Amino acid sequence: MSSKKLKSANDASSSRDGLGGGESVIADHGRRRSTCGYCKSPARSSISHGLSAETLTVGDYQALIDRGWRRSGCYLYKHEMDKTCCPSYTIRLKASDFVPSKEQQRVSRRLERFLDGKLDVQPREQTGASSSLGTTRSEEKSKVEPVMDDLSKMIDQAVQLCIQSGEFPSNMQMPKASVKKVLCDKRKKLAKGPEQLLYTSNVAFPIAAAIKRTLTSEKVEIEGNKLSPETISEMLLSAISKVGETPGISIKVSKGHINFLSASKDSFYEKIKPKKLEMRLKRSSFDPEEHELYKRYQLKVHNDNPSRVVESSYKRFLVDSPLIYVQPSGGDDEEKVVPPCGFGSFHQQYRVDGRLVAVGVVDILPKCLSSVYLFWDPDYAFLSLGKYSAIQEINWYYYLGYYIHSCSKMRYKAAYRPSELLCPLRFKWVPFEVARPLLDKKRYVILSDIKESQNQSSLLPHASETLAAHEDMEQGETNDHFMGGSDDDEDEEMDESESEDTYIESDIDNIIIGLYGSQYRYKDLRKMLNPVGRKQLEPMLQSYRKVVGDELSERMVYELR
């Protein structure tokens, strides 16, 4: 038997979660070993159990993630926590109790300042003719840089006038003037009246140093404070007035600096149009614009191999989803109310003035919003869009995916408080602050032991017994091995221990088996199986029941092919 399937029995799944029709159809891949992307171990030290889903109800997936499962595309996986190299604890945040930290508040304020035009940090210019940002930056440069260039030339001409008049030595090369833009925050601090400080130049300081070095080397006596930056700036100010006019700009000196101010309310910086941030939630589907952003993110931020960011791999990872969409609904029953967006898999787009800057892939489920992945424009790294999007996504219980205490890159998830970690054995939620001291000491911890008494914990199985994943049978085997023998085998005697008279009820009795288009409870199907078939099938059912839980194992169909 090369593969096995789990399929919801009739409408059992939909009737239990009360969220419309559909059924879960899942193939079981058993234990999987792979290299670890967190500790970078060359060995195949990451151990998990895998399922692939054709379809999956939101209620069933909610139950699965509450047992430590996650999805990547249509592939579901759960780490064998006591065996894998980097135990991955499911982490969630109760949104109603969320208290943003000072750092998280700074992230929100920083983005607001960027949108208002008050943040002087600019995104890096994106290469390529299709870059809308490149167009915006070039437009800004065409307005800002010529102004600073003109002011620099004006100062250079003033220096030459001072040389011609004999105020500055003629036997030395004067430094070129440099005019800089004054940052918004500093502009506010220095504001003392209606005029706004826009540009400044400290050219008087290098000129004073150059003159002093020249006169000292020529053993010419320097008189008093004549060559101080303050004096030189005053000399330049006088010369600038002879060079030409600067409409709309007044020039003053202060402590050696030449300052250019504007009293006009409609100066260029006052004309900056606030940027608009839009967040658009759309159902998961392929979008070429999103794929291009994903490629840039993976290549620049994660240094991925270009062969790994092709369209097909992107679709498998972030577009394909087995979740069955549930239409919005109203009503008084809070358990059955579906939000306006519905339940299912979505892409949350973040756009600045129409430009796509980030995409959050999320699953919206009956009891939570589960974050799948986020990718963003590397040009906007200064905005900390990962942190900002997390704050925006906190609506329901917010599941941030997996938390790996031993991985520094995952530690940020615990910064969203109050967070809880899922116990990998008893599937109880434990406050992160309670769990952290134990995780500081060792990677794998049965978190519920913190709250359970010694007597209670001794009655439960040890973590090492939680999962004994079955191995796939060899390719080409058929279900004939599980069925009763042919007519030629009618005289074969059943082993005494396998007789119906001695059969003891088992916890796998109520698992639903799909076989040849029919469905059976295992306690009924076993009557049709020979001893070899039962011996092969029962360990698989035991393993299956442990890995998906009692409730799901009895409302889903384990299909034999």
UniProtKB/TrEMBL annotation:
Residues 34-106 form the N-end aminoacyl transferase N-terminal domain. It catalyses: an N-terminal L-alpha-aminoacyl-[protein] + L-arginyl-tRNA(Arg) = an N-terminal L-arginyl-L-aminoacyl-[protein] + tRNA(Arg) + H(+). Keywords: Acyltransferase, Transferase, Ubl conjugation pathway. SUPFAM superfamilies: Acyl-CoA N-acyltransferases (Nat) (SSF55729). Residues 289-423 form the N-end rule aminoacyl transferase C-terminal domain. Transmembrane segments: none annotated. GO terms for molecular function: arginyl-tRNA--protein transferase activity. It is an enzyme of class 2 (transferase). Residues 124-136 have a biased composition (Polar residues). Residues 1-26, 118-144, 475-501 are annotated as: Disordered. Residues 486-501 have a biased composition (Acidic residues). Its EC number is 2.3.2.8. InterPro entries: Acyl_CoA_acyltransferase, Arg-tRNA-P_Trfase_1_euk, N-end_Aminoacyl_Trfase, N-end_Aminoacyl_Trfase_C, N-end_Aminoacyl_Trfase_N. GO terms for cellular component: cytoplasm. Belongs to the R-transferase family. Involved in the post-translational conjugation of arginine to the N-terminal aspartate or glutamate of a protein. This arginylation is required for degradation of the protein via the ubiquitin pathway. This is Arginyl-tRNA--protein transferase. It comes from Brassica carinata.
